[in-house]
């Protein structure tokens, strides 16, 4: 028998027999975006995450608003967090991820988008400390160094590399 044992504006804790898991509100249209600027650099954000008590490097991402598609979420979140305005013809869904299938019921769509210097329309929002640009030919060494540990970012990069025959192009 399934019941809610805790609820807040962002998630519910569900007990289903002996199992407990989280249902995230609006995660069904959440999105993460791998941005490639001028075909040369991936754009990441540096932000503080309380859950890991650390400043992290990750891709722009977020929950969707009511009646918003995951594509619209990706475009909006990218603009809010980076200042880059993605043109609809420059974005595509490359996959989805279950961030932690043991305790989260959510599935989040992953997008890839190309932007250029002229697409930078504003400064990033207050959630972001700074933008980090990583040369695409150096991304594997950055991953292996442990500087990127965010599961969404690693999943997006894995999907991108798989789609591009295991190489960064």
Outline:
The protein has 169 residues and is α+β, with helices and mostly antiparallel strands. The protein is 20% helix and 37% strand.
How much β-strand is present in the residues?
35-45%
* CATH architecture classification: Alpha-Beta Complex
H/E element order = EEEEEEEHEEEHH
Radius of gyration: 17 Å
Number of domains: 1
| Topology, number of strands | 10
- Output mean pLDDT: 92
Separation of the first and last Cα atoms: 49 Å
Largest sheet: 7 strands, mixed
Structural class: alpha+beta
The CATH topology annotation reads as Nucleoside Triphosphate Pyrophosphohydrolase
Share of helix, binned: 10-25%
Shape, please?
globular
CATH class: Alpha Beta
- For CATH, the homologous superfamily is named as Nucleoside Triphosphate Pyrophosphohydrolase
Descriptive overview:
This protein has 169 residues and is α+β, with helices and mostly antiparallel strands. Helices cover 20% and strands 37% of the residues. The chain has one domain: Nucleoside Triphosphate Pyrophosphohydrolase (Alpha-Beta Complex). It has 3 helices and 10 strands; from the N terminus they run E-E-E-E-E-E-E-H-E-E-E-H-H. The strands form 2 sheets. Strands 4, 5, 6, 7, 8, 9 and 10 form a 7-stranded mixed beta sheet that branches. A 3-stranded antiparallel beta sheet has the order 1-2-3, with no helix packed on it. Strand 4 and strand 5 form a beta hairpin.
